[in-house]
């Protein structure tokens, strides 16, 4: 219906739920009165306006449901990542017990022989270096295991992944290899800068240690234009010893090591945990003797 009031025309817009608005029309410029033809046109406009409003409401409802579903999925993925970490704790502690006993057993064994006969200065120096080496190893195992099993509270901020990688290169400047950087313009991500720098430092260190005789270390970033949602990618490639196919599924397990590099088998486990806690993905492609490429993906920040 339409209503006259002091030469104005009021067109109420009622949806199925409520009054959505009112269109107010003043007098015609010609000062003629509104006629039946005008009312027919106005009613057509009212119907179209209401149809548009219904579509807007429907879109807003879909948007709210989508955002709620996204939040549930986000929370579920975080809970899943946490559950997986808790589920691996038993195995982690078993492996930890074995790993920590190794350097302590070596120190204990050599100490037992120390007092059985006189020792010269050269032996004592060797013994000192042995103890320091294995004590350092034990401390490294303890600190890495604590970090793996009890991650610190993260401080998420908007980050440029290129800055994270450059920070990691400052923490562990690769030496003895040829470094190639191809850092593209990429959208920001949400994350903890310290944790992500730790992850990329471990990946860079892992790549360098896989090339004891030197080689090429390539680091590149790029946006994934083929993904349905904005995704930021980073790849770290080396031309080192590679990873046998039968070990590809084990490299992220705590304490797993190929015994070729200097690591304790914890670095990649820490990397995997950090990437998962940032709801990212990490995958590796490699063949024995042909190097390895680690690809990391993060959802871009809005």
UniProtKB/TrEMBL annotation:
Keywords: ATP-binding, Kinase, Nucleotide-binding, Phosphoprotein, Transferase, Two-component regulatory system. GO terms for molecular function: ATP binding; phosphorelay sensor kinase activity. It is an enzyme of class 2 (transferase). It comes from Candidatus Saganbacteria bacterium. SUPFAM superfamilies: ATPase domain of HSP90 chaperone/DNA topoisomerase II/histidine kinase, GAF domain-like, Homodimeric domain of signal transducing histidine kinase. Its EC number is 2.7.13.3. Residues 95-302 form the Histidine kinase domain. This is histidine kinase. It catalyses: ATP + protein L-histidine = ADP + protein N-phospho-L-histidine.
């Amino acid at each position: 219906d339409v209503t006259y009031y002091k030469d104005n025309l009021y067109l109420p817009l009622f949806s199925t739920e409520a009054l959505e608005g009112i269109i107010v029309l003043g007098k015609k410029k010609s000062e003629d009165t509104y006629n039946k033809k005008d009312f027919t046109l106005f009613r057509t406009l009212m119907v179209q306006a209401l149809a548009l409003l219904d579509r807007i409401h429907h879109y807003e409802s879909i948007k709210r449901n989508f955002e709620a579903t996204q939040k549930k999925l986000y929370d579920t993925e975080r809970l899943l990542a946490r559950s997986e970490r808790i589920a691996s704790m038993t195995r982690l502690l078993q492996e930890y017990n074995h790993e920590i006993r190794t350097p302590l057993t070596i120190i204990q064994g050599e100490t037992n022989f120390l007092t059985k006969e006189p020792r010269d200065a050269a032996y004592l120096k060797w013994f000192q270096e042995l103890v320091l080496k294995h004590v350092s190893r034990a401390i490294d195992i303890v600190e890495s295991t604590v970090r793996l099993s009890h991650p610190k509270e993260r401080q998420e901020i908007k980050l440029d992944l290129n800055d994270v990688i450059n920070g990691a290169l400052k923490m562990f400047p690769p030496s003895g290899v040829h470094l190639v950087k191809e850092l593209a313009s990429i959208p920001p991500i949400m994350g903890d800068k310290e944790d992500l720098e730790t992850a990329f430092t471990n990946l860079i260190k892992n790549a360098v240690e896989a090339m004891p005789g030197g080689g090429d270390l390539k680091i590149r970033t790029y946006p994934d234009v083929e993904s349905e949602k904005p995704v930021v990618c980073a790849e770290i490639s080396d031309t080192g010893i590679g990873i046998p196919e039968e070990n590809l599924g084990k490299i992220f397990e705590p304490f797993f090591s190929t015994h070729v590099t200097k690591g304790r088998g914890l670095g990649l486990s820490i990397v995997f945990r950090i990437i998962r806690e940032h709801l990212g993905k990490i995958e590796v492609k490699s063949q024995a003797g042909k190097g390895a490429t680690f690809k990391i993906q993060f959802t871009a920040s809005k």
